[in-house]
Amino acid sequence: MKLFFLCLCLVLTSTCFAKKVEYYKCVTERGVMYSQFPCGSNAIAQRLEHQDPDVAVPDDQHTKLLNALERKQIIHTLERKIRASKQKVAILDRERDRAKQKALDKLERMMSDQEKRQMTRDVKSELQQIDKQYMRNLKEVSKNLLELEKQLKKFSK
Question: What average pLDDT does this structure show over 148-157?
C-alpha cells in the first residue's frame, strides 16, 4: 500500500504540469503496483488527466447552456401540462355524457302519465344542472389551458 502511494506521488509530482499522464497498473504476487513504465506483460495502461487550476472556465457559456437546458425542461413541463388539461377536458366530456345518459334512462322506466310528466321535468332540471356544472369546469380548464399555451409560446421563441 505504501508502495502504491509512493509510486502514485512520484507519477503526480514528476508530471504535475502535463495535461495527460500515462501510467501502468501491474498485479504481482506482492499486490498491485503502479509505475510510469510497464512492469511486466500483464501491465494495464491507464491515463491520468490533469487540468490546470489557474485556467478560468468561461461562465457565460455555462449560463447559456444552463438556460437552454432549463428552457427545454420548462417547455417539456408545459407540454405535459397542456396534454393533461386536454385529457381533463375529455374526461369532463365523458362524465357529462354519462350523467346525461343516466338522467335520460330514468325516462325509459315504466310509469304512469302523471309520474312521467313529473319525471320529465326533473330530468330536464337535472340536465340543466349537469350542463351548468360542465360549463363551469370547462371554463376553468380552458382558462388554464390558454395560460399554459401562452407560456409555451413565450418559451418556444
Answer: 85
